[in-house]
Design a protein that fits this description.
Layout (H helix, E strand, L loop, with lengths): L5 H4 L5 E4 L2 E2 L2 E2 L1 H17 L3 E7 L6 H6 L4 E6 L8 H15 L3 E5 L2 H13 L4 E5 L1 E4 L6 E7 L4 E5 L7 E5 L16 E4 L31 E5 L6 H13 L3 E4 L1 H5 L20 E5 L5 H4 L7 E6 L5 H5 L2 E4 L2 H11 L1
Parallel strand pairs: 1-4, 1-6, 4-5, 5-12, 6-11, 7-11, 13-14, 13-15, 15-16, 16-17
Antiparallel strand pairs: 2-3, 8-9, 9-10
């Protein structure tokens, strides 16, 4: 195991993010990572570097510069078609050892959760997964990584003082991206695979986009969400009607999903999706911490519940105390 002493720390600089590109498009979570990295790098007096790995991805570098990257390191090769975590891990490990970043951030997506732990093990680094908050300890520069723990019942702040880089994955829709600065440029470095890196046990034959039953809550501006108080599928039919009037989407708590009233794709919270919308209307959701971590950064939160003292009613910007089956139909009628 490699232990980093005070002298070694000075050899590690800058904040890296692992960019995600899917079907020729930079995933929005990448811009959120760049926003977080920019804030941390400014505190540490360093630069922001985006690591961009894939086939035909070099053209995406301009967007990364415009959203805050100072440097983009690109590994662009036909061998990187699709998502090959074995090969991408070897490339990332080599580049980490070459350039020595102080911090490396990835997204807590399916891709990030598969790749980042591999990189952490290979690079002998600590890793905190599913972070919802990142800060810097002003005394020693440690990354303070906050995430839900013990089933979401507490928020734990973790540091990996003795290893570099400090690695974390961040939940989508938690960090705010920077405003796009059109025309902004930076340093582009090409670092393609080297001989010996491409010995894989698998090969990606084809990428297939699944469009059936997808619920893209991350791109909604308004979400109407229901919990146990909706009493059954018919209650969610009512919420769908309200969401349609608002041109919004329908979300749900885990209790409603576990009851079989609505598919898992609608679940918001620690074990579902994280959302950051302009308006979040919670109908009959008590607001356990597992749900709150998935929606607490929404711009305006409205809670409708019979009980005025639930956690969600306490944190909401606007509360309506009463029966959702009386209030929601009135809202639909008014709209």
């Amino acid at each position: 195991m490699i232990i980093i002493n005070e002298t070694d720390r000075t050899q590690y600089r800058d904040v890296w993010i692992l960019a995600e590109v899917l079907f020729g498009r930079v995933e929005p979570v990448t811009y959120e990572l760049l926003g977080a990295a920019r804030r941390l790098a400014d505190i540490r007096g360093g630069n922001v570097c985006a690591l961009l790995i894939g086939k035909g991805v070099t053209g995406q570098a301009s967007a990364l510069f415009e959203y805050g990257a100072d440097t983009v390191i690109v590994a662009d090769s036909p061998e990187l078609y699709g998502f090959n975590d074995e090969l991408e891990c070897r490339i990332a490990d080599r580049l980490i050892r070459k350039y020595r970043p102080e911090i490396m951030l990835g997204a807590a997506t399916a891709r990030g959760r598969a790749l980042i732990p591999r990189i952490a093990v290979r690079s002998v680094c600590g890793l905190t997964a599913d972070c919802t908050q990142l800060e810097i300890d002003p005394e020693n520069g440690d990354l303070l990584q906050t995430r839900p723990a013990f089933g979401g019942n507490i928020m734990a702040t973790i540091r990996t003082s003795n290893h570099r880089p400090q690695m974390a994955t961040v939940r989508p829709q938690v960090m705010k991206p920077l405003q796009r600065e059109e025309g902004r440029t930076g340093k582009l470095i090409a670092e393609n695979p080297v001989p010996g890196e491409n010995g894989n046990i698998k090969k990606i034959l084809e990428l297939v986009r699944n469009t059936e039953g997808n619920v893209n809550l991350s791109e909604a501006k308004i979400i109407v969400s229901g919990g146990r108080a909706m009493k059954g599928p018919a209650g969610f039919d009512m919420l769908r009607e309200l969401a349609a009037k608002l041109n919004g989407a329908v979300g749900a708590s885990r209790a409603a999903v576990d009851a079989g009233w609505i598919p898992y794709a609608h679940q918001i919270g620690q074990t579902g999706q994280t959302v950051q919308v302009k308006l979040y209307i919670a109908c009959g959701i008590s607001g356990q911490i597992q749900h709150l971590v998935g929606m607490q950064t929404c711009e305006t939160i409205v809670a409708i519940d019979k009980k005025p003292d639930t956690p969600l009613m306490q944190m909401a910007d606007i509360t309506v105390t009463g029966d959702v089956f009386q209030i929601v139909p009135e809202l639909i009628k008014a709209l």
